[in-house]
Amino acid sequence: MWTEKYRPKRLDEISGQAQVVKRIKGFVKEKTIPNLLLWGQKGTGKTSLVYALAKELYGEFYDENIMLIETSDFVEQRKKWLKEDKRFKFFYDEQKSAIDIFKEMIREYAALRPINASFKLLFFSNADFLPVNAQQALRRVMERSNKTCRFIFATTKPAGVIPAIRSRCLNLHFTPLGKSGALDTLIKSIAEEEGVKLTEGGLKTLREYARGDAGAAINMLEAAATATLWGSAPRPRKPSKGLIDARRIEKVVRNAFFQRKKAEELIDSAFASRHKEVRAGLEILIKDERIGGREIMLEIHEALRRKMKAGMATEESKLFARLVLYEGETDFKLCNSLNPMIHLEEMIMKMSKDMGL
Q1: I need a labelling partner for 278 at 20 to 30 A (CA). Which of 101, 126, 181, 192 fits?
Q2: Within this chain, do residues 329 and 184 fall inside the same structural domain, yes or no?
Q3: Percentage of the chain with pLDDT > 70?
Q4: Three-state SS for 66?
Q5: Of the candidates 139, 121, 107, 114, the residue with the CA atom closest to the CA atom of residue 49
């Protein structure tokens, strides 16, 4: 995959985050690092920076001195995730709750001093998904394990991380890549490296759909390049240089970005008051595709924005503001909800009612 092939290996290779990289390089020079809270929208380089940091701190031993905890997986699967992950086999106990097992595992890992380094890294991706009681337990572990472990939290929603943790971390903001032009530069360089021709129209369309997410942009470019190179022949032929224009990107997005397409269908159903279709669409996304409530929220917001942005009159602007208010209320409810279906359906029903006025 191109996302892994072109993932930055060094801090200097991180695009569009010059101020963050400058601060981190200063810590690397001193062979130390504070606890970190990295926040910013998806696809801005937070995970890439953590692994580049680990490689510069530990060299060839970087993989031994960093542990990634994907908190969204833990929250969604709980004991099933703990049981299937071999890292936790010594801590798993069927008689204990998932939170208790999780806390014990973190305490033990953080307390153990690494053999070939002065401290190791514990990296929590999507940290805002962690339950509040788990975050409170982490606060105490951070205080006790400062000599053996550094904690790094990455999130798109820093308000979802409790103040006690935020105050114990250096907070670093990752700016959107689209605004700085770094995304365009990155995509152009990858296209040139791969030998594909990306038109200005194709780049503009890709930028609009990626919404500043470098990973999504690279995946779209790869999918479009693959389709262009291999065409529709029944058997693979020798690749030829392909042209990627706006039409090609549009086709890739329609076929490959399933949840984005379903979100647009949800909005269309809400506008037409087809409530049964709304429920059916949500069930597909949540139960069949196992997509998180907040991810669906983001896709609904973007689908709504695309549908209403063109030439909005004053009354339409007021309607859009009300619909966004419903989104904010629902997002707050999703923070502590075990069943996102209830709140998302309620939100869309409110939207549908306002759209019918």
Answers
A1: 126
A2: no
A3: 87
A4: strand
A5: 121
